Hints:
This protein is α/β, with parallel strands linked by helices. 39% of the residues lie in helices and 19% in strands. The chain has helices at residues 14-25, 43-56, 80-83, 105-115, 129-137, 141-144, 167-171, 173-181, 191-194, 201-210, 214-230, 244-250, 285-288, 301-312; strands at residues 4-10, 29-36, 63-65, 101-104, 120-124, 145-151, 186-189, 255-264, 274-278, 292-299. The chain has a ten-stranded mixed sheet, sandwiched between helices. Helix 2 (43-56) links the parallel strand 2 (29-36) and strand 3 (63-65). It binds beta-D-ribofuranose and calcium ion. The site of calcium ion has 9 residues, from loops.
Amino acid sequence: MTKHKIILDTDPGIDDAMAIFFAFQSPEIEVLGLTTVFGNVPVTMAAKNALILCELAELDIPVCKGVAMPWVGPESGYAHFVHGDDGFGNINPPDPKGKIDPRSSAEFIIEMARKYPGEITLVAVGPLGNLALALRLEPELPKLLKAVNVMGGAAFVPGNVTPVAEANIWNDAYAAEIVFAADWELNMFGLDVTYDLPFAPNFIDILAEKNPTLGGFVNRASQFYTDFYSQGKDTRQCYFHDAFPIAYILEPSLFEMTEGNVRVSTDKLNQGQTSFAPFGTTASPDWLEASTINVATKVDHPKLTELFINTYAL
Ligand code: BDR
Ligand code: CA
């Protein structure tokens, strides 16, 4: 079986951890490396956390450090209130023993894309600065990658940072605009699908039972995360946003994708808004000239949940 080659661009992060282990566990996926970016936590912590996850999974792959700041503007505020001071729900795992790869995230992406032209799916589950930088350094990148699967954006639903913007896109809207405008196959997994599937505590209990090491880690880290997502709700729940673009690689039939034109807003009030016009819904030349992407608009909940559990159980 030829495996799907991926690079995971990530800001771990609790749902990042869940997604990374999901990819590691799948026999159909080869993770070439983890490239890290600021987002949920500062980039130095993101890189350290990515190393921790690799060591826990006993997987020796490159972990690179990437951009620390948005493309434009000051350093971001981080999401410690969602992911904890350590990015892992304050469970404070021991420091990793390994070293960060000397290549920057953007350099690693370019090197791998040149080595395996047309084979790699770039799975981006944090802000998009590494990918924007890689595009600037290697304008041929769209031809060298197979596809870019992004967790981010909100096409037909409200945002989670502002009424119109999702966190990954809002965090680096200028970079996102560059990435969304590039000429590649871009599949967007935004809040339209990820916020549609809350996970109850028994889901993380099952992950821990099926896979005590990796599922157990996700379970412990997710307690704080579940507290955050359960505020004001009758039942406890959390969301595993970042695993969706990986699931699409394994089981595209679980998703309904809608093709259309997209623009990312960089103006202050609407920063990070992903405005989306499905094909046939507008005749405006401005919109018809905007780049084309595929947006996940529906997902099969029972089958996706089953895929996560079965993969953790392997
Ligand atoms: C996204 O933002 C981060 O907090 C999560 O890791 C996910 O990538 C959800 O909006
Ligand atoms: Ca993330």
